[in-house]
Design goal:
The protein has 12 helices and 12 strands. The chain is an alpha/beta fold. It has a 10-stranded mixed beta sheet. It binds S-adenosyl-L-homocysteine.
Length: 337
């Protein structure tokens, strides 16, 4: 940014001022009260603020989770979630409008990908939430809509900006990037050598099962994915988190638990069990609580660290892509009528 500002004949400190204003979630250049009018006019002529406007906000009555439906400058919608934990606030942000990965259980991919988000649009979700709730976010999970490693350059730019001192200064150790298993992207992320937590959406320990629910597995098999995770860990020394959505009668068998333990052997990891969240478009159901607990205990007996993810915001459709799907359906209906 400083290069751009000096190109406009302005001193470098102006870039810092403007960067600071943008962090506060402003939506109009006129709000930059300490920036001279003539520069504001130039900025308006040549740039736009890639903000996120709150279209809808849902506050959970069960916990402090807040789900946002944001409208972007081009009328597209994305979702973000704010979760409150003992250690602070975590924002779950989107990386794309829609998703091309086509996981069968996920609402985000129902209409494919419309476009990538820019790094600014990823940041804007955090700025907008902080401004709305008057809080500071301390942790970020890239687990909203989209596949961050299918939008690698913008994701990398975002990681740099969100962690820089002049920016939100959020420690890279407080950021998780979640992937369905884009092996080429995992290698690229590893080469950045940032201490980011890598979350891998595994969901099935056998290739034939994973092929059924996650098309990415046709491109990169579990063996290649696990190899990439090992390399990532060798470089970053970070513990890997494996996400495992438990689907009743599908991947919740004792054999699956045993295989999960076998394939993750040698990796310092944590298994995050997610009771599958049903969406209307599929018939997946979550196992009952005793089945979930026995699956978890079996993993623990094999020496793994496993926990069941708390279902936050279950009353507000807080799962991936569910809100945008609703909005799109409503607008599709409006067009049909
Ligand atoms: N594309 C990335 C990040 C987005 S999804 C990825 O695949 O990891 C965030 C997490 O929610 C992923 O683990 C995803 O598999 C999971 N998820 C999506 N829909 C779900 C559902 N209906 N039930 C349970 N988990 C779901």
């Amino acid at each position: 940014m400083s290069g751009y500002i000096s190109g406009l004949g302005q001193p470098a400190y102006r870039a810092k001022q403007i960067f600071k204003w943008l962090q506060s979630g402003i939506s109009d250049f006129d709000e930059m009260t300490n920036v001279p009018k003539n520069l504001i006019i130039k900025l308006k002529d040549s740039c736009y603020i890639a903000g996120c406007n709150i279209e809808k906000r849902f506050e959970s009555k069960i916990d402090d989770t807040v789900k946002y439906l944001f409208k972007l400058f081009d009328g597209e919608y994305i979702e973000s979630v704010l979760m409150k934990y003992d250690h602070g606030y975590t924002a779950c942000i989107s990386s794309q409008v829609g998703c091309n990965m086509g996981c069968k259980f996920c609402a985000s991919g129902l209409f494919g990908k419309t476009r990538d988000l820019s790094a600014s649009e990823m940041l804007a979700q955090i700025f907008a939430i902080q401004k709305d709730r008057k809080i500071r976010i301390s942790n970020i999970v890239m687990m909203g809509m989209g596949e961050p490693l299918d939008n690698f350059l913008n994701t990398a730019k975002f990681l740099n900006l969100v962690s820089c001192e002049e920016g939100l200064n959020i420690g890279l150790r407080h950021i998780s990037v979640s992937t369905c298993g884009v092996v080429s992207g995992i290698s690229k992320l590893a080469s950045l050598n940032m201490p980011i937590t890598l979350s891998v959406s595994l969901h099935a320990p056998f290739d034939d099962m994973r092929d059924e629910i996650m098309p990415i597995n046709k491109r990169w098999k579990i063996k290649e994915l696990i190899e990439a995770c090992k390399k990532y860990q060798n470089i970053t020394t970070r513990r890997i988190s494996f996400e495992y959505a438990l689907i009743s009668g599908f991947n919740d068998t004792d054999l699956c638990a045993k295989e999960l333990a076998r394939i993750t052997r040698g990796i310092m990891c944590h298994i995050n069990l997610i009771p599958a969240n049903p969406i209307k478009e599929n018939s997946f159901v979550k196992p009952d609580r005793s089945k979930i607990d026995s699956f978890k205990n079996l993993l623990i007996s094999y020496g793994l660290t496993a926990t069941v993810r708390r279902t936050l915001g279950s009353d507000i459709d807080a799962s991936c892509g569910q809100l945008r799907r609703k909005i799109r359906k409503e607008s599709d209906c409006a067009i049909i009528q």
